[in-house]
Amino acid sequence: MPAKVDMDKIVSLCKRRGLIFPSSEIYGGLASCWDYGPMGVELKRNVRDAWWKSIVHERADVVGLDTSIMMHPGIWAASGHIDSFTDPLVECKSCHLRWRATEIEDKKCPKCGGELTEPRMFNLMFKTSMGPVEEEASTIYLRPETAQGIFVNFDNVITTSRKKLPLGIAQIGKSFRNEITPGNFIFRTREFEHMELEYFVRPGTDEKWLDYWVKERFDWYLKLGIRKENLRLRQHGKDELAHYARDCHDIEYLFPMGWSELEGIANRGDFDLIQHAKCSGRELGYYDAEAGEKYVPYVIEPSAGVDRSVLAFLIDAYDEEEVEGEKRTLLHLHRSLAPIKVAVLPLSRNEKLTPLAKEVFNKLCPNFVTDYDDSQSIGRRYRRQDEIGTPFCVTIDFESLEDKQVTIRERDSLAQIRVPVEELGKILEAKLKGEAFDASPLWATREK
Ligand code: GAP
Questions:
Q1: Residue 445's pLDDT band (boundaries 50, 70, 90)?
Q2: What three-state secondary structure class fits 358?
Q3: Distance, CA of 110 to CA of 99 (rounded, Å)
Q4: How far apart are CA 109 and CA 89, in angstroms?
Q5: What share of the chain in percent tops pLDDT 70?
């Protein structure tokens, strides 16, 4: 089934509504780099928080970590990234565009049809140098994954956290890859954010835990509103496994350009701990006190991209419908992901309405991310909130001054209820938590 929205519409909505801007725009932009605007930064943070909540806070068997982007270069030699983190690169002899050999179908340049060079291996790590005197500075790399920061801290965490295996260590942070062909908006960029869990288990239980995490992670996207028909699983063939992986399953999403990887869940075996023990000279094993034995744990790794998840959530939430003969564009974002939870909208800028509207805003904003907007017509303000996925708008009108009631308008159904100002916080809290607050007898009209 084709995706219902093309990427241009998503890019244009993101620009128009302050979600995502092209980076360095006033200087003509920088290819495949993007900046998150006021709405985008909230959405991205909500995606990270939802992941951290489900992976770290809601579990007793996972702890968090935040390691540095620049690490000892020996780490990348041990992990195999210096030798094996490469893509085969081909160059067009006519237009000199470069391509990943794996995306070329008929040995011709996809842009101009020109002849291509033989593939050569291209390392995707960004190099830089550390130290004030250039000649003496040592070469270091910007991390291409956050995972290695976790492996080299395994012993620190095990000896300080008083936890037993199975134990997960989670990290969210920036990664950098000098991708040959970045593109498709924020799908593939050279700077992006990883959400990675390394889950350490007893060898022999690894296959069971791999199945467990594949299901957990698939369900996470469903719980946050992604439609099931737009998600699927794909197991890697033996010939496409990364150098460290024994097995890997991708969660794929139906992006506008077709089914593509959203997240990978790999069984890394004991590859990384063995390598780091060998290259650092430090023992990296685990003593299982109950069984009275020592072993090197195996690792199950669910690894997702924040930006790629943001893109999938945006695409899945995008909708256009007709209301009373007018087109309405909206994002059906899950309430926990929506950048703004509640918008307070006085019917007009009339000075009589402002004090009550401000009072309502001040009451709500300590508890929910709340917007206040009194410019332009109420219809246009509703449309703006719909386009950024705000689940609830609260309208203050002249009647509100008399009866101290305001109108809540629901984004998806367009239904409206009038509620007393004192009840407003309680009602919104229940609705935003997804609790069964039965306001249905109160919902009166679909917006005209
Ligand atoms: N530590 C394992 C690892 O990094 P990966 O399959 O290369 O595995 C995991 O990356 C996830 O990170 C991908 O599924 C994707 O969501 C995200 N990702 C990887 N490269 C990316 C890029 N260049 N731009 C945006 N996201 C990327």
A1: very low
A2: helix
A3: 9
A4: 12
A5: 96
CB 317 within 8 A of CB 386: no
Mind listing the pLDDT tens digit for each residue in 45-60?
999 999 999 999 999 9
Q: Kindly report the average pLDDT of the chain as a whole number.
A: 94
Pocket-testing residue among 152, 307, 308, ligand 1, by greatest number of atoms within 8 A of Cβ: 308
pLDDT of 277 above 50: yes
Can you give the pLDDT at residue 437? 54
Which of 67, 303, 310 to probe ligand 1 with, by most ligand atoms within 8 A of CB?
A: 303
pLDDT at 2: 39
Output the CA 365–ligand 1 centroid distance in Å.
Answer: 35
152 Rama class: left (phi>0) / alpha (psi -120 to 50) / beta: alpha
Distance CA 256, CA 193 (A): 21
Instruction: Tell which residue, 370, 367, 430, 424, has the closest CA to residue 400.
Output: 424
Contacts with 288 (C-beta within 8 Å, 6 or more apart), sequence order: 164, 165, 202, 294, 295
Query: Average pLDDT, stretch 233-254?
Result: 96
Nearest to 316 by CA among 195, 257, 230: 230
Angle between helix 421-433 and 354-364 (nearest 10): 40
**In the prediction, which pLDDT does 103 show?**
83
In the three-class reduction of DSSP (H, G, I as helix; E, B as strand; rest coil), residue 413 is classed as coil
Ligand 1 touching residue 261 (CB < 6 A): yes
From the CA of 263, give the closest atom in ligand 1.
14
The answer to whether the pTM exceeds 0.85 is yes
Q: How far apart are CA 199 and CA 101, in angstroms?
A: 33
Asked whether 309 and 321 are in contact (CB, 8 A), the reply is no
Cα separations in angstroms, 438 against 136, 254, 413, 447? 69, 35, 15, 20
**110-124, 218-232, 428-442 — most confident range:** 218-232
Cβ burial of 34 (10 Å; 0-12, 13-18, 19+) is buried
Q: Name which residue sits closest to atom 22 of ligand 1, judged by CA.
A: 188
CA dist., res. 379 & res. 373, Å (int): 12
Q: Above 90 in pLDDT, residue 229?
A: yes
- CA-CA distance, 311 to 314, in Å (whole number)? 5
